[in-house]
User: Fold these one by one.
Assistant:
Number 1:
Amino acid sequence: MLHLSLFTEDKRQNLITTREGEVKVGQQAQLPITNCNLADNLTQAKANGARFVILGIGEDIGPRANLGRGGATNAFESAMAQFLNLQSNRFFNGKECLILGQISTQDLQLDTQSTTEQLRDQVAKLDERVITVLTSIFDSGLEPIVIGGGHNNAYGLLMAAKASFKRPIAAVNLDPHSDFRPKEGRHSGNGFSYAAASGALGYYHVLGLHELKNSEATLAQLETFGAQWHSLQQIWIRQELSLETALKQIAKQLNNTQSPVAIELDVDAITNMPSSASTAAGIPLLDALKYVNYIGKHCPSVYLHLAEAAPSCHVAGEAAGHRETGQSLSELIYSYINARINAL
Ligand SMILES: N=CN[C@@H](CCC(=O)O)C(=O)O
C-alpha cells in the first residue's frame, strides 16, 4: 500500500493569496489528480511539462530516535505557504512542478513516552515507505525535491535512487554532522552509514563538517569508507579555501564518479535555522543557496533533500519558525530549480 497524502486543490486555495494582475507560482503549479494512482499522476504531470516533484515527509521520529529534539513535522506546509506565493514570471512559471503532497507518517509518530528503541523501529518502517514512493518518482524520470522530516530519510532516498538508476549514488551533504554514526538502529544520525553499508552510497562528500560535532569513531568510519569533507572551520573560520574553490573541487570529484548525484542539505548547517540541532555558529543562508545552485548546475543531480527544518524550534515561537523555515526552504527550492533548468 502507498502511504501518500496528496496535495489538494483546497490546500492550494488555503495557501495562496491572489492579487489582480499578478500570477503566483501556486496558480501555475500542477497538482495530483486524487482518483489517479501515483504512476499515472507522474506520467500525466510529465506530459504536461513537469520536471520536478515536490514532496514532504513530515516526521520527527528520526531526530528523536537520534536523541535530538522533535518538531520536524510541518516544514512542508511552511515551505509551500511561501513557495506557492512567489511570482510566476519570465524567470520561472511554476508549471514545471508537481506539488505531490506528503508521505503519510501520522501512524508512525510516537508520543514522548516512547523508548529510543521503539522510535528506531518506527524509522525503519518509514524507510520502506520512502523507498517505495521515491522509487516510483525516480522511475518516472522526474526529479524529487523532498522537504523533511529528519535526515534519516536520506537513507530511503539513496536506496530508491540506487534501485531506479541501478547503480550507487554519489552524495554531497552540506551539514555540520556527517550522519555516519554507527548502525545501531535507524535514526537521523546514520542515514549515510546505512546507505553505504547497503551499497546505495558509492561516494560521499560532507561540506561544512564541524570539526567537533563528529566523534572520532565516526570520523574513522568516514575515512574507511573513503568519504571526503571540507570542514566548516577550513572554509568559514580559518579561510584556508573559499567556498567557491571547495564547490569546484566537490563538483569535479562528484563528476569523476560518473554516478547520479544526490544533493543533501541539513538546514542545521545554517545559522539559527529552527531545527533539532540548530546552531548560532552556522553558515549564511546565501551560502547554502550558492551550494545548491552550484552543484545542481554543474553535476547530474537526481534529487534535492532539505532535511531537519523544525518550525517549533524557533526561539521566538512557532509562527516565527514557520516564516523563517518557509522562506528559507522556498529560496532553496528555487535555487535548485533554477540550477537544474540551466544545468551545464
Ligand atoms: N541529522 C542530524 N544529526 C546530528 C544531530 C543530532 C540532533 O538532532 O541533535 C547528529 O547525529 O549529531
Number 2:
Amino acid sequence: MLPILSMLFSILYEQTVVPGALQLSAMATQMLVISPALSAISAMVIPGTSLAIAYLGERTRKISKEAHLSVANLSAYLNEVLPAILFVKANNAELSENVRFQRLANADLLAHLKKKKMKALTPQIIQIIYFGGLFTLCVGSLVVSRGSFDSRSIVSFMTSLVFLVEPIQDVGKAFNEWKQGEPAIERLFDLSNLKSKVIEKQDAIELETVKGDVKFYDVSFRYGDERPLVLNKLNLHIQAGETVALIGPSGGGKTTLAKLLLRLYDPLSGGILLDNKNIQNVHLESLRRHVGLVSQDVTIFSGTVAENIGYKDLTTKIDMEKVQMAARDANADEFIRMLPKGYETDVGPRGSSLSGGQKQRLAIARAIYQDASILILDEATSALDSKSELLVRQALEKLTKNHTVLVIAHRLETVLMANRILLLANGELQELSRSSLLNERVANMASNEIVI
Ligand SMILES: Nc1ncnc2c1ncn2[C@@H]1O[C@H](COP(=O)(O)OP(=O)(O)OP(=O)(O)O)[C@@H](O)[C@H]1O
C-alpha cells in the first residue's frame, strides 16, 4: 500500500502540483503588476473552469467505479463457476452459464468502453473550456483597456495568462487521473481494512513445544450480537494424546468449536487452555503451528505435490525427506510415485488432476509434515469409493497414535476410532458411550449424516 501511495504522491505532488504552483504564482504576480483590474477579471474565469473540472472528475470517478465493479463481478463469477465445471456439466447447465457469462462480459465491455470514451473526451472538453475562457478574456481585456494599454503590455499580459492557464490545466489533468484511480484505491483500502477478529497481545508468549492438553472452560460463543448462542457454557477436556470424536446435527457448532481452538474468533465468555496456557496469551503464529487442520474442503494449490505437502516451508526450504515420510504415513506415497514426475508433478489448479481420495491423503500428509501436536480433522462428508476410504481412514488412524486429535466425524468407522465420543447439540456437549451410539434413537438425534 505504501509504495502505491508514495508513487501517487510523487506523480501528483512532486511532478505536477509543486512546479505548477510555482509557475502559477509567478505568472499571477506578473499579471497583477501589469494590470490589477484585468487580473481581477481573469480570476473570475478560474472558478468557472475549476467547477467544470470538478464535475468532469466526479463523472470520471463514477464511470471508473462501474468499470472496477464490472471486472470484479466477472472474476468472482469465473472463480466460482470454473472450479465447479463438472457440476455445471452434470446439471446440463452449460447454456444457462453461458448466458450468465455473456451478460457479465457485456456489462464489463460496456463499462470499459464508457471509461475509455470519458478518458478520451475529458482533455478535449477541458481544452474547449479553457480556450473559450481565454477568448472571452482577450475580448474583455481589449474592451476594458480601451487603448490605455500599450501593445507591449497587452502582449506581456496575454503571455502571462497563457502560462497561467498551463499549470491549471496540469492540475486539472492530475485531478482527473486521481479521480480515475480513486475507486481502485478505495478497494485497496477496503481490503487492507479487513480487521482480524482477534487481537494478539503485545506480551504474547511463544510456545516452543506442546504436549497437547486442551481445555475449554465455560465457553459461550455467538457470531454476532443479534445471533443465537452457538456454544453455551461448554466444558471439554481433551488429554494429550487422546482422540475425541465430535458428532452432532448439521449447524450444531462442531466447526465453530474448531475455529475457536485455532483462535479464528474469541469466545464471548470462558476460555480455552492449551497445556494450561490461555490461548489468548499465546502468539497466534505459534498457536496455529501447533494446531493443524485437515478440513473437509481440502485445499490443494496449483504447484507440485511436494510443494503441497511441504506447504509450511514453501517460502524457505522444503525438506524432501520429511515430505516423503509424511506421504508414506498418509498412504499417499504409492500413488504419488505413479504420477508422471512423482513428487515434482504439477497437480493443476486446485489439484484438478487428483481424485477426491488422493487430495484428502495429500492434505493429511501436509498436516503430518506440519508437525503439529494437536490435529483437528474435519471429516469430508462426500463419499469416497471403499478402497480410497479405507486408505484415508488408515492414514487418519496412524495420525491418532501420536497426536491429540479432535475429529469432526461423519462416519461410524471414524467415530469408533476415537477414545471418546461427544455429541454437540443446542450449544451443549454430551458424552456418549459406544453402545449408546449404536442405539438408533441417539444416532438419529446425533446426526442424520452418521451411517450406522
Ligand atoms: N461465519 C459465520 N457467521 C455467522 N454464522 C455462522 C458462521 N459460521 C457458522 N455460522 C452459524 O453457526 C452455527 C454453527 O455452525 P457450524 O459450522 O459450527 O456447524 P457444524 O456443526 O460444523 O455444521 P456442519 O456439520 O453442517 O458442518 C450455524 O447455525 C451456522 O449457520
